Amino acid sequence: MSAEPVITMRQIDKRFPGVHALNNIDFELLPGEIHALVGENGAGKSTLMKILTGIYPKDSGEIQYQGKLFNPRDPRHAMEAGIGIIHQELNMMDHLTVAENIFIGRESMQKNRLFLDSRGQNRRTAELLRKLNMAIEPRETLGRLTVGKQQMVEIAKAVSHDLRVLILDEPTAALTDTEIEELFSIMRDLKSRGVAMIHISHRLDEIHRITDRISVMRDGAMVGTRNTAEITRQEIINMMVGRVIFEEPKSESRVKPDAPVVLKVENLKAGRMVNDVSFELRRGEILGFAGLIGAGRTETARAIFGADEVQSGTITINGRLSYVRSPQDAVAHGLGYLSEDRKRYGLAVNLSVKDNAVLATYDEFAPGIFVDQPKVNRETGRYVDRLNIKTPSINQLIRNLSGGNQQKVVLAKWLIRDSNILIFDEPTRGIDVGAKSEIYTLINELAEQGKSIIMISSELPEILRMSDRIIVMCEGRVTGEIPISEASQEKIMEYATMRTQETLVTEINA
């Protein structure tokens, strides 16, 4: 690996109203290395990368790219110079083909310059995808691909610009294990071609597998850079949060066997992904839902909350048969739902922190024709303090907060509503270990107060750490129920890959 950096950032400083986002940051990227950039949500990682790619201007400092001063005017300027970024939320056109997405704005034209040369563009795309070992059809509509394949198309688009530097922001957050392996294979191939990569991730185990060096940020400052092979997971966490965080699994349930059942689901069927699902939830219990992607966990939660239509089965809440036909019905019955897609279903990103916090309770703050703003401010401020939400003001737009702090605002919404049954779908996805620890503490506190919680998670250590009991699903059905005292990753995976007799019969008949 060359000793001359391809990127050198010196004394980078950036302020926003009420926030010192970056405080004299130094950062170097070497040719052909995969360099992890980690830190808590709000540490400044994304801001630093947005400055490098021309999304934000820096307030002071300098950037050198390939030995020359570099001041990107905008993302297009950065891309044309050979610096690309793959955002966590993909930014492509679902209705266009793979080839059309890759060459959008640079379309292949016929000799007369009047008509698109679709055949030539598809041929160029096929050559590019073949070079990157991506088994994707150029003429396929992007929206028909999995998230993992769509991400590969975006990488191919970046590589088509004669890429020198690729930034990947949480690239594995929504991928299956197989897709992660495919992504890592592509990254290693790019590395062998001399492409330098900055890998932003909260998944520390993956970082140890794929990166050469790790830089840690905290509160807008650079804590330090270490060789990946020479630093442990616990040392990274300590650098990120400035304190020791313990991640021990739970050994026994704190819920008494005779605790009242607050939610009983029997023979629930909803769409293709929820088939004959039955379970009980007790007062004060944290009920973990485990399973592989596509097991039907989220679909079950959405059906219970009234977001998806239920074909058959019953839902009993606090001993009374309940008809939940909409989220409004669910909220009226004391249910709250934190979606795995917080920006799509949990937040109004163009509204303020306080407006989002009281979304589910607005009727209580507006008994007449006017909203009681002092009461709104008091309640929001109380939960901002309680949840340690990092925001300069309750009037700050929610879109300007980090992912972890946005998640806390969604939590605040349901706590202000005082829901007694809470469904948390991937509550820590895309947030750092420090924010995770705070959310774990909060969930445990809620359970101790008598709230009942369903927690869906794809992270088995998280399920084992938090749950009193675990429901495992596979292919739309419950395949196992495990008391936490008997739970292990191996047992969960056994049930998560267990094809039910009903599924096999259905496939044989088909």
Distance between the termini: 55 Å
- Give helix % range: 25-40%
Principal-axes shape call: globular
CATH class of the largest domain: Alpha Beta
What does this structure look like?
By secondary structure, this protein is α/β, with parallel strands linked by helices. It has 19 helices and 20 strands. It folds into four domains: 1-82 and 163-244, 3-Layer(aba) Sandwich (Rossmann fold); 91-161, no CATH class; 253-334 and 419-510, 3-Layer(aba) Sandwich (Rossmann fold), CATH 3.40.50; 345-418, no CATH class. The strands form four sheets. Strands 6-7-8-3-9-10 form a six-stranded mixed beta sheet, sandwiched between helices. Strands 16-17-18-13-19-20 form a six-stranded mixed beta sheet, sandwiched between helices. Helix 14 (373-386) packs across helix 15 (403-417). The N and C termini lie far apart (55 Å). Strand 7, helix 6 (177-192) and strand 8 (196-200) form a beta-alpha-beta unit. The chain has helices spanning 45-52, 75-81, 98-102, 118-131, 147-159, 177-192, 204-210, 233-241, 297-304, 327-332, 342-346, 353-357, 362-365, 373-386, 403-417, 433-448, 460-466, 489-496, 501-509, and strands spanning 7-16, 19-29, 34-39, 60-65, 68-69, 83-86, 165-169, 196-200, 213-218, 221-227, 261-270, 274-282, 286-290, 312-317, 320-322, 335-338, 421-425, 452-456, 469-474, 477-483.
List keywords for this structure.
Rossmann fold; 20 strands; six-stranded mixed sheet; 19 helices; 510 residues; disordered C terminus; alpha/beta; 4 domains
